[in-house]
């Protein structure tokens, strides 16, 4: 194949083989051959070895040649996830294109759904009363799941459903619940192309100088959930993984800020010898002076102490009855400042308060 000829029409990235009467467009480009990926080599190896074992077991071949084939080694992938700042730029760029595109990218980030799950979501999958959205199963049987959504996402989905209802009303149709949220059809009866969605998202990220694909967004979701304390089991369920180990080993990426917190946690439990301890910063008592008790309250505390001889606890209870909130430790400090903590409770203050 020298030229990849793609079908015409917005959102249609299908490669055609019958070029009769075809007029090339901007997406018809020279074909670029790419080597098989390590994952594809493993699939081919599994097919060959499984077939040979079956033929040998049924006696159709004298020996099993697949036993001499070494399985290809796949290097362990290093998960990549865009940063929070990059995700914010992607969301802003998507909303600049149109509201439906921005809502779709936002929904993909919040639900951490696969590309096919995002594209095939319908209006009937939204439960506005319980703030839930159903992510349909597209890759693994039984991976369809209800996930919670926040108020902002619920508001965006409400506006999108209203836009869909207006488009269908203009065509003389009513809402049935079968409408696709991601669609280029004015009636939203068919979903948009998966390949075109990926191409549109990739072009948007490339224009921003960001290396990100729709699949990288799932890595971002797994990384953020685990980094913010969500247990792996809950994160795996939200991403639709059958095993939590897939979420932690394959999808969660490394975050430098999390590593900095880890360094602080580990160092906090250690203690250096005295000669290596860092000097403590001088405490600025002058800066704390404006936070002292007001002169009126201090005069009230001293007056109660001189007239009744009450202790700090009884003074605090008396002031609380007058709806004046003050801590017992504060009363102790005020009495000590005026020399009224001992037997000098009936005398005058030993010193005047100083205020900044």
Description:
Helices cover 47% and strands 4% of the residues. The model is unreliable at 344-356 (pLDDT under 50). The chain is elongated, with a radius of gyration of 34 Å. With 356 residues, the chain is mostly helical. Helix 2 (84-97) packs antiparallel against helix 3, helix 3 crosses helix 5 (151-170) and helix 8 (232-239) crosses helix 9. It contains 14 helices and five strands.
Low-confidence stretches: 344-356
Biggest sheet: strand arrangement: 3-4-5
Average of per-residue pLDDT values: 83
Specify Rg, calculated over alpha carbons. 34 Å
Order of helices and strands: EEHHHHEEEHHHHHHHHHH
Task: Compute the number of strand runs.
Answer: 5
Biggest beta-sheet profile: 3 strands, antiparallel
Summary keywords:
elongated; disordered C terminus; mainly alpha; 356 residues; single chain; 47% helix
In short:
With 356 residues, the protein is mostly helical. 47% of the residues lie in helices and 4% in strands.
Question: How are the secondary structure elements laid out?
Answer:
Blueprint: E1 3-4, E2 29-30, H1 38-57, H2 84-97, H3 99-111, H4 115-119, E3 126-127, E4 132-135, E5 145-148, H5 151-170, H6 194-207, H7 214-227, H8 232-239, H9 244-251, H10 256-268, H11 285-288, H12 295-308, H13 312-321, H14 328-337
Antiparallel strand pairs: 1-2, 3-4, 4-5
Helix pairs in contact: 2-3, 3-5, 3-7, 7-8, 7-9, 8-9, 13-14
């Amino acid at each position: 194949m020298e030229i990849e000829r793609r079908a015409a029409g917005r959102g249609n990235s299908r490669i055609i083989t019958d070029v009769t009467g075809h007029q090339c467009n901007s997406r018809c480009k020279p074909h670029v051959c790419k080597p098989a990926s390590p994952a594809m080599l493993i699939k081919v190896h599994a097919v060959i070895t499984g077939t040979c074992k079956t033929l040998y077991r049924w006696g159709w071949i004298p020996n099993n040649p697949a036993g001499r084939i070494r399985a290809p080694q796949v290097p362990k992938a290093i998960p990549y996830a865009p940063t929070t700042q990059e995700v914010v730029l992607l969301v802003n760029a998507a909303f600049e294109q149109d509201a439906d595109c921005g809502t779709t990218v936002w929904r993909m980030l919040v639900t951490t759904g696969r590309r096919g799950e995002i594209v095939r979501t319908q209006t009937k999958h939204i439960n506005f009363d319980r703030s839930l959205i159903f992510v349909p199963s597209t890759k693994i049987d039984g991976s369809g799941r209800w996930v919670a959504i926040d108020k902002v996402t619920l508001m965006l989905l409400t506006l999108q459903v209203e836009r869909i209802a207006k488009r269908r009303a203009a065509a003389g149709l009513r809402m049935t619940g079968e409408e696709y949220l991601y669609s280029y059809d004015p009636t939203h009866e068919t979903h948009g192309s998966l390949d075109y969605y990926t191409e549109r998202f990739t072009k948007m990220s490339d224009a921003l100088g960001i290396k990100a694909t729709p699949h990288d967004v799932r890595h971002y979701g797994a990384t953020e959930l685990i980094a913010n304390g969500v247990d792996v089991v809950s994160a795996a369920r939200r991403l639709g993984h059958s095993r939590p180990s897939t979420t932690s080993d394959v999808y969660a990426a490394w975050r430098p800020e999390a590593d900095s917190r880890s360094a602080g946690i580990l160092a906090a439990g250690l203690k250096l010898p005295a000669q290596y301890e860092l000097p403590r910063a001088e405490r600025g008592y002058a800066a704390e002076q404006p936070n002292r008790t007001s002169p009126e309250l201090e005069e009230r505390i001293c007056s109660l102490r001189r007239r009744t001889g009450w202790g700090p606890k009884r003074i605090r209870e008396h002031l609380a009855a007058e709806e004046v909130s003050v801590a017992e430790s504060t009363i102790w400090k005020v009495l000590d400042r005026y020399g009224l903590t001992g037997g000098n409770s009936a005398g005058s203050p030993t010193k005047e308060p100083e205020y900044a």
